[in-house]
Amino acid sequence: MAYLLKGVSILGAAPTDLHIVDGVVSDTPEEGAEVIDATGLVALPGLVDVHTHLREPGREDAETVETGSRAAALGGYTAVCAMANTSPVADTAGVVEQVWRLGREAGLVDVQPIGAVTVGLAGKQMAELGAMATSAANVRIFSDDGFCVADPKLMRRALEYVKAFDGVIAQHAEEPRLTEGAQMHEGEVSTRLGLTGWPAVAEEAIIARDVLLAEHVGSRLHVCHVSTAGSVEVLRQAKARGVRVTAEVTPHHLLLTDERAEGYDPVFKVNPPLRTRDDVEALRQALRDGVIDVVATDHAPHAVQDKECEWSYARPGMLGLETALSIVLSVYGPQWDLIADRMSTAPARIAGLTGHGGDLTKAGTPANLTLVDPSVQRVVDPAELASRSRNTPYAGMTLPGRIVATFLRGEATVLDGKAVK
Ligand SMILES: NC(=O)N[C@@H](CC(=O)O)C(=O)O
Q1: Among residues 247, 253, 252, which one has the least CA distance to residue 233?
Q2: Which ligand 1 atom lies nearest to the CA of residue 270?
Q3: Domain Dihydroorotase catalytic spans what residues (predicted)?
């Protein structure tokens, strides 16, 4: 299938014609190509998410690889990295290969499995990182996300182990002894609501420790869902010293604050918790500066019974894939170069996903891209989401931008704002 995207603006530049032929960007038109009127639309390299929870195997009532892939494509993504906290945990070659195969069968985005760092995410014994790296799933990112690799000796060994194949340890930075019973950010609002708080220092202390370990070992560390101004300062200093550390921020931490907990609506319960306005400002600036490298969704679907209950019983986590670009647009406006780097090129580099995040002006670049209509304002309706879950914190909000089409290696996965399969 060949396409001609007529009058498209690549990253906000003057309108041009973009030819997609045989799965790549081409500078020569193809006879009989399907013409898409792309007037007013912006082409971005397909978005890449380094932090997605797809819930399969184990919690297919909340999401499957297929439903999550569809949500991703509709959000403009062409690749997602699937977190390891499934059931069974993705801590063996068998499980990561299963997730990888399910992703191929769904065929809507490239699903790159993340392997667990420790057996069963229990933080005691290192998982078979080498077996997962050499499996068909070709795992490069390892994470116990949902839990912190709290034992410093184990963290050091894992960093040493992955160095051999340029792997990366993605840390969920949470000192567990400081967050026992935590329900939200520790601060003025938690005091008023009478909820046990997760102090900012519980995140910052682990990041500080881990950048020192990564520096000592000379290995790659990635910090998941950075949420505090103090974490940003630790990362800024580490990067200035040349530590091989990268970091992500979620759309919700760029937009929402802990005041959302005031109605006790569990849709706003998430780990790490929503923080203060000052934290939000520091995160926004850090993403601009490049101290934080990427936006990652931490798309965390949960079944109704796990979310629509009393706050303290509700699971933490919120949906992200289908709203991420709109949230980032609402925060930064049409800064397309920034958006393309932080949501596509940089995450593709971190995950080692060659073929994603490429330059759409160059012939031969794999045609992984998405078309956005920035002029449209959409009202988020949970019932319309492709995810199997409904736990979006943005229900009823009016947000800028609509994904019109997404292409994976030149094949449309989304057309006219609808998934093709
Ligand atoms: N982000 C969340 O609040 N939840 C994540 C795991 C996690 O990161 O805690 C989940 O898997 O639901």
Answers
A1: 247
A2: 3
A3: 42-229
Active-site residue identified among 258, 293, 298, 306: 298
- State yes or no: 145 annotated in a binding site: yes
Q: How far is CA 233 from CA 222, 259, 291, 292, 336, in A?
A: 15, 24, 9, 11, 26
For residue 209, the tally of other CB atoms under 10 A from its CB is 18
Q: How far apart are CA 360 and CA 75, in angstroms?
A: 19
> What does the pLDDT look like over 152-204, one tens digit per residue?
999 999 999 999 999 999 999 999 999 999 999 999 999 999 999 999 999 99
Q: State the ipTM, two decimals.
A: 0.96
Nearest-angstrom CA–CA distance, 409 and 258 = 40
Distance 63 CA to ligand 1 centre (A): 14
**Pocket perturbation via mutation, ligand 1, pick of 147, 271, 319 by most ligand atoms within 8 A of CB:** 271
Q: How far is the CA of 37 from the centre of ligand 1 (A)?
A: 40
Question: 82: part of which helix (H) or strand (E)?
Answer: strand 77-82
The predicted structure's pLDDT at residue 199: 98
pLDDT band at 284 (very low <50, low <70, confident <90, very high): very high
Instruction: Respond yes or no: is residue 298 known to be catalytic.
Output: yes
Number of residues written out for the chain: 421
Whether 55 is in the pocket of ligand 1, judged by its Cβ within 6 Å, is no
pLDDT at 117: 99
Q: Please tell me the distance from the alpha carbon of residue 224 to that of residue 84, in angstroms, as a whole number.
A: 13
CA 214-219-225 angle, 5° bins: 65
Give, using CA atoms, the residue closest to atom 3 of ligand 1: 317
Amino acid at 22: D
Q: Read out DSSP for 243-254?
A: --EEEEE-HHHH
pLDDT tens track for 107-136: 999 999 999 999 999 999 999 999 999 999
Longest Cα pair distance anywhere in the chain, in angstroms? 67
Domain 46-358 fold is TIM Barrel (3.20.20)
Closest residue by Cα to residue 326 from 377, 287, 261: 377
